[in-house]
Amino acid sequence: MLQQRQSLLEAFMASQPALALQLSFPADVLGDLAASFPQSAGRLESRGSWQGPLYYFVEDGVGFTRSRENRKLRVGGQLIDLFSPSPVVAGSKCNDVIAATGVRSNNKIVAESSTLVSSALSATCSPVGAQKIAVILVSFPSTPLSQTITQNFLNGVFLGNAFSSSASTPDWSISDFWTQASDGKTYVNSSGTGALTIVGPYTLSQDYAYCTNSNGSYSDNSGAVRQAAYAAADAALNYTDFSRVVVVLPNNGSCTGIAGVGTIGCWSSECPGDGACNYSWTWWRDDQIGSRGAGVNLATHEMGHNLGLGHSASRYYATEVVGPVDVAGTRSEYGDSFSTMGFWNFGFYNAQHQLNQLGWLSSSNVLPVNTSGSYSIPGFDTRPDAVKALKIQRGTGTTDAWMYLAYYPSSGIYLSQLGSQIHTGAIIHYQDAQTPGGKTDLLDFTQNTNNNFSDPALAVGQTWADPYTDLSITINSIVSGSLNVTVNYNTPPCSAANPTVTISPLTGSVNAGSSFNFTVSVKNNDSIACASRTFSLASSLPIDATWTTSFSPASLTLGPGATGTATLTKTTPSTALGSYSVNASATSGSNTGATDPTFNASLTVTTPPPSPPAAPSSLTATAQYSGSGKNKTLQSVKLTWVDNSNNETQFDLQRCKVTGKGNSTTCTYAPLALPSANVTSYADPASSLSGSGTYKYQIRSENGAGNSTWVQTQVQVQ
Ligand SMILES: [Zn+2]
Asked: What is the pTM of this model?
């Protein structure tokens, strides 16, 4: 049993780390179990803290449809998988020494918390300066490398037309992209020791399946093929001369789900034969770099990982540009299609990435803004470097939420390739406590007109007023290649607005005569400076006085931007069959909001299923005589009852005569009559009785769905 539990726990560690932490035994229980069952101690997880260099790489799916991050810690010469329900140390990279505290089982750790013990030395693996790159081309015995992927072609991808006869227009290259994006700080080394060296293709001694495919979900398994490639190229390369190693693999069908994989930063524990090393590695599938443009797209992404970057995501909120500070919204991992670290494109690494991870921008290039003012920002590709972005504090007093605002003009051979709307104003990335470490998320400022990130810019002439803080941003103009922006921290005066009212569910069904509950949601759309106010609730549909309407609570008191809900109960009359529209409205002073008629609810009222009738009551039996004295003669027993039901089809009347004496009397009922519906009396003639004595009667009401209970009475006759 412990073995089964351990397998299950380890599966959860990888797939649902938060659950694995919940399922793990507390430390005292683990201690007791280990003491009681020493032979089973190896089947138990342990709690503690483990420390070692981080090994961290990211898999990128074909078409960037999916990605997966892999983290391992090197502990005692062993690589341990590191999982965590919360982000591992913000902006961490390979060779950073991390201490992880949590639960370990065999070669897996789930960290409850993690801390950075020491940062990797960057001297030999800096994202700034000449990048020393070796590229190894690989063929498999069964699958040669694509004939397109030659040393000459790749010289063009890395260094451009001046180094390749495989010319491209425009003359995109990794080195030019980095040079332009970094103002010349970073480029591909093209001369001397560590100059770009492309070797191969080497045909390895065997084919490699370099992904693990479980049910169509591919994960990196490239260790063996990379080692074989390093060995094949060892004679041609002195690995200590390089800080970046690229392996290009043929698409042999073993890895149809992954386009490329790259380490975050440099890893010093996977060295081929030349002694100590410290380089990033990445592998690319040959069919994913079949043209210069595709090659530069994928290479600037994977080697962006190598330089230390994660992905560029977007953050989406259903009804507004951005929700309250630290409210998550929906993140899309590759959602920024204006950075090469997002969905495939030629966008430069964003301002936050360049400032905090790459060191390509310094604090003088990213102007912090926390007071009102007007600013002029040159294009993001302006050289030499200038103020490239504003880092705008989101509201007075907010210390953990920032908006990075930049201007991407339609210039040069990279930014001009981006979707055109971005050139009409400001591109704004957002960072708060919900943003994973080392990242910013693209916001969509045309969210109300087009719910996608193809047109996210806050355009010239527009003002965005934060509904949750006192911040507003106005894009004034673009003049001589610079964007003119006004940032304001003045709370605008209270601006009252009609509330938004919605009702759910949009369809319902109820039996005639019964009640149905809807949830009515009311959002206060007043501006942030307004006070809370109370909205009274109403529902005018269906227009039929025989329906009853109630709200619980009857009114909602809401602050600006807040949403509240109430239960609307509609009680239908027993005669109403059919389909009815149901609406709701909320009113406060002169502001009223109602459900959009297109989104009123529809309630279908159906015939209730039949039910047994209610029992009659007050059954009485009275003996009726004629004459008196010796001539007194029984004529009949008169029975009456009260009809309590409106759906009986008949009554069932039964009678018995009591026989026996004392404690041993018996009375066996027999059918007497079946009075029709709504009849409330019956005369039982003397001729049907069998002389004097005690008679009992019982009656019930009946219909097709069943019968009521019996009610009884008795009478003495002479
Ligand atoms: Zn990636």
From this structure: 0.70
